[in-house]
Design a protein that fits this description.
448 residues; alpha+beta; Glucose Permease (Domain IIA); 2 domains; two-stranded antiparallel sheet; 6 helices; 61% helix; rod-shaped
Length: 448
């Protein structure tokens, strides 16, 4: 009974031991050999890296679309500005044509005033001519009355049988001459004779005035005709200006249509650009979430990677040749980036392709060879050194190790490059303690 209990106790102890080893990350096969567990985190890490890669590619595609939209906006704005210039130029022409039309309209009004004035003068002249004709008619009537009176005198002389009657008749050319030459006429009242002379003069003057008024009237009619022709010419000029104005207005309307079309296009492009910016923001948030998950996965991988194992008890080694000691960016806040820098950048000239060495012995837990140009670390290596320490070597041009490989201090693990978000060949070197970045110069000494 005791032996049976003893066997059960020993079996239970063995099971507990195996469970303890399994929980600790090791599997016991019944011998003194410890078998490494299968690292299932690699699949998760690969998935997260692929998500980051996909997010980076999507962000880059979105940024290209944003840039293209921005370029289209600039081009469209330039085209819109061209039409604005055409609108301004055409509007200036329209303003000038409107001014010319207004001037022509005023000239037409002035010409119509001149025509009205001439018509008034013609009417006044016609009234004056009519008045002259009335005066002439009245004088003619007076002249007839005087001739009748003369006839009565002659009749009286005939009845009295005057001796001078025949001689007067024989030597006279006409009645007026008889009247003048006759001795009988000499006995006629001198005032009456003067009146008849004055009457003849007045009649002649009235005829002369009438002829002058007729000439003035004809001249006024000619002036009126010329003014009417000038008015017609002005109306034709105004019509031409109206057609010119219509042409520019139609042209301007077309320009406005084009301008508004480009304005709508710009609005659509800006809306698209805003949507793309939103998509980029969402994608960046997803990427940051995946990046944080990857960081956590790496940290968990470190915790699972035999943290109590010390791979190398010696000092930390400088990760590149001692000839390269120029630190272009230190650990901590960096004003150029507007944020914290998680490591140091070693960036001497001539470093492209130079060897990168493991700063201490350990196990490679990340060896990333895929990347998107212009983003993040590019190609990089992460080594777990045990006791919670890890180092990261970024922007490599080549990777010489793979995940799960154990390396010694000083082993060549990669080559200096400029992959990812990098402004030139350099090594971005990080040291992490329990998943938190610390200043590398706090553990690694720079060569003297």
């Amino acid at each position: 009974m005791n032996r049976k209990v003893s066997r059960i106790i020993r079996g239970a102890a063995a099971v507990c031991c195996c469970l303890a080893l399994a929980v600790s990350g090791q599997i016991y096969d019944g011998t003194d050999t410890v078998i490494k567990p299968v690292r299932t985190y690699a699949d998760t890490q690969s998935d997260l890296e692929q998500k980051i890669k996909d997010a980076d590619q999507k962000i880059k595609d979105i940024e290209n679309e944003i840039a293209a939209a921005g370029s289209n906006i600039e081009t469209t704005k330039e085209q819109q500005d061209n039409y604005w210039g055409l609108l301004q130029a055409t509007q200036n022409k329209i303003d000038l044509v409107n001014l010319d039309v207004a001037n022509k309209e005023q000239e037409i009004l002035d010409k119509e005033d001149e025509i009205a004035a001439v018509e008034l003068r013609i009417s006044d002249t016609e009234v004056r001519i009519a008045d002259k004709e009335i005066q002439i008619e009245m004088l003619d009537q007076q002249n007839k009355n005087n001739l009748e009176r003369f006839g009565q005198i002659m009749h009286a002389m005939y009845i009295t049988d005057s001796d001078d009657y025949l001689s007067i008749i024989a030597g006279s050319a006409d009645f007026y001459d008889i009247f003048v030459r006759s001795e009988i006429m000499k006995s006629v009242n001198e005032q009456n004779l003067n009146f008849m002379h004055q009457l003849q003069n007045d009649i002649q003057k009235l005829h002369d005035d009438e002829e002058k008024l007729e000439e003035d009237k004809q001249q006024l009619k000619y002036d009126k005709k010329m003014l009417e022709q000038q008015r017609e010419d002005l109306v034709d000029e105004k019509t031409a200006l109206d057609e010119k104005k219509k042409y520019y207005n139609d042209l301007n309307a077309g320009y406005w249509d084009e301008y508004n079309t480009y304005a709508a296009k710009i609005q659509d492009l800006e809306t698209r650009q805003a949507n793309l910016q939103y998509q980029k923001k969402v994608t960046q948030a997803d990427r940051e979430k995946a990046q944080a998950a990857l960081e956590e996965e790496i940290r968990q991988a470190q915790l699972r990677a035999k943290m109590n194992t010390v791979y190398d008890t010696g000092e930390w080694a400088w990760p590149v040749s001692p000839a390269f000691t120029l630190i272009t960016t230190h650990f901590g806040y960096d004003s150029w980036r507007g944020g914290n820098h998680g490591g140091i950048d070693i960036g001497n000239s001539g470093m492209m392709g130079a060897n990168i060495y493991a700063s201490k012995g350990g196990e490679v837990i990340v060896a990333k060879t895929t990347y998107i140009p212009g983003y993040d670390y590019g190609m990089y290596v992460v080594i777990d050194h045990g006791n919670g320490y890890q180092t990261l070597y970024a922007h490599c041009s080549a990777i010489y190790v793979s995940a799960g490989q154990v390396v010694n201090k000083g082993d060549c693990i990669a080559a200096v490059g400029s992959t990812g978000w990098s402004t030139g060949p350099h090594l971005h070197f990080e040291v992490r303690k329990d998943g938190v970045r610390i200043d590398p110069l706090g553990v690694v000494s720079m060569p003297q």
